[in-house]
Amino acid sequence: MPGPNTLYNLYEFFWKDGFGRIHEIQQKHTQEYGKIFKSHFGPQFVVSIADRDMVAQVLRAEGRAPQRANMESWQEYRDLRGRATGLISAEGEQWLKMRSVLRQKILKPKDVAVYSEGVNEVIADLIKRIHTLRSQEEDGETVTNVNNLFFKYSMEGVATILYECRLGCLENNIPQQTVEYIEALELMFSMFKTTMYAEYLSCVFDLLAAASILQQPLCAELQHALQSSPLLAESSGDKPGQIHVDNKLKAIQSQLDQGEGVHGGLLTHLLVSKELTLEEIYANMTEMLLAGVDTTSFTLSWAIYLLAKHPEVQQRVYEEIANKLGKDQVPVAHDVPKLPLIRAVLKETLRLYPVLPGNGRVTQKDLIIGGYLIPKGTQLALCHYATSYSEENFSVANEFRPERWLRKDNLDRVDNFGSIPFGYGIRSCIGKRIAELEIHLALIQLIQNFEIKVSPKTEPVLAKTHGLLTPGNSINVRFSDRK
Ligand code: HEM
């Protein structure tokens, strides 16, 4: 099988700063070596797949508990300290058990529809915050670096759903406890982005480590962060990540003591049903928060950027909202199917900027892919960025054309393997419906309230890989009141 050798990879990644360009390297290597190629790192290798049908074949052949990457050292660390893993890092039977509990409450659109009201309260605060921020600018309209704002929105939104409480991220004066919480999370995000959530990248790191190119395995770096981070040290008492879970537990206890019925969302269900241990609940709440904030905020930032750059698309979206929902009607989850264009905007945004440009799988049986025998236990890298930009899969692939998703019921197809930003199958993103709810409702209300325009302060924004696919520079946009 063709592919880059160790020397070439060292040159590409270290000399030419390839870690920030993983998405481009996928495309480049696909052009050079074909849709299936083997990257060598010393004695180890990764097989990369950049073909829609081959990706489909791999994902359709998955067993009961698919594995993204070899997590042995991570697992050993958790075992050593008696700490529970969350869904992202768990494997085998433990993963199956947790997934089957968590999926009951958040995997279907109707499961998350109940959170519309809570998310809308957060969006009302987001809009207030936009008014405050733009009033501080000379033109009275610009918000600089919208991702900062959307980070706070996503954190507040996801916490509202997961912890069933508000953090105050969008207030003018953020509560001190929340400031500390955001700081702890930011530290973890920076570690997390280059490790757990970027399996494609972590395979590269692990292989480099195996080839003794790195002094320490990457996991050790993350393990150190875990030890020193106040947030993720789940078992050590009074930490910010636990406070919200513990508060909920106390509230439930007091309701029970008073003979009241207990109702609530996911966290309440987990605490009452006791299907997961408290340690597992802490671990999963933290991992879901980590997995859910940056992904959602980057996607929202890219969507706003694309809409600002394409006023004609934005106008069509606005007209659809005005005609099918109403100019001032606050949307809820069941309004979203009436607005196919807003759904298409999200799908097209994620095609052009898939937050996870690549994903990993360890094969659980021998497979023949593209004519090659791939033995059980091989680390695969699924090159979603490359398939998203392939002209074979999407005509005029470089252009933002949300309407392409409106044809032939494309919106509801989950099996368009050219663009699967949330993954596919049993190990796909468990937070997909939460992310969609937060993004759809926010986009609808932002477009109802504002005409979103490119600010003269905005340079063209290119993507860079920092674990996730992130905006390479700050996105500044003008939020003009809609007349
Ligand atoms: C636009 C937003 C998001 C995108 C694009 C995204 C994408 C992904 C992808 C590609 C995976 C890997 C799937 C696979 O291996 O097949 C994943 C896994 C995961 N995501 Fe998301 N995600 C998003 C938001 C969220 C949110 C909001 C949450 C939680 C509230 C979340 C929680 C998770 C978890 C826990 C996993 C691991 C699932 C498992 O291993 O069983 N994600 N996500």
Description:
The chain is of the alpha+beta class. The protein has two domains: 109 residues, Uridine Diphospho-n-acetylenolpyruvylglucosamine Reductase, domain 2 (2-Layer Sandwich), CATH 3.30.43; 353 residues, Cytochrome p450 (Orthogonal Bundle). The protein is built from 18 helices and eleven strands. The chain has a four-stranded mixed β-sheet. The relative contact order is 0.17. About 8% of the residues have low confidence. Protoporphyrin IX containing FE binds next to helix 14 and helix 18. Its cofactor is heme. Belongs to the cytochrome P450 family.
Q: What structural keywords apply?
A:
alpha+beta, binds protoporphyrin IX containing FE, 4-stranded mixed beta sheet, 3-stranded antiparallel beta sheet, Uridine Diphospho-n-acetylenolpyruvylglucosamine Reductase, domain 2, 2 domains, Cytochrome p450, 18 helices, 11 strands, about 475 residues
Q: Care to give the gist of this entry?
A:
With 483 residues, the protein is α+β, with helices and mostly antiparallel strands.
- CATH topology label of the largest domain: Cytochrome p450
Total beta strands: 11
- Outline the low-pLDDT stretches: 196-202, 205-238
Helical amount: 40-55%
Query: What structural class results from the helix and strand content?
Result: alpha+beta
Gyration radius, rounded? 22 Å
End-to-end Cα distance = 59 Å
**Number of helical segments with 4 or more residues:** 18
Described by strand count, sense and barrel closure, the largest sheet is: 4 strands, mixed
The CATH superfamily of the largest domain appears as Cytochrome P450
Number of domains: 2
Average pLDDT confidence is 86
CATH class of the largest domain: Mainly Alpha
Task: Write down the overall geometry.
Answer: globular
Task: Please name the CATH architecture of the largest domain.
Answer: Orthogonal Bundle
Helix and strand sequence: HHEEHHHHHEHHHHHHHHHEEEEHHEEEE
Largest beta sheet: strand ordering: 1-2-7-4
Bound molecules: protoporphyrin IX containing FE
Protein name: Cytochrome P450 27C1
GO molecular function: heme binding; iron ion binding; monooxygenase activity; oxidoreductase activity, acting on paired donors, with incorporation or reduction of molecular oxygen
Family: Belongs to the cytochrome P450 family.
Keywords: Heme, Iron, Membrane, Metal-binding, Monooxygenase, Oxidoreductase
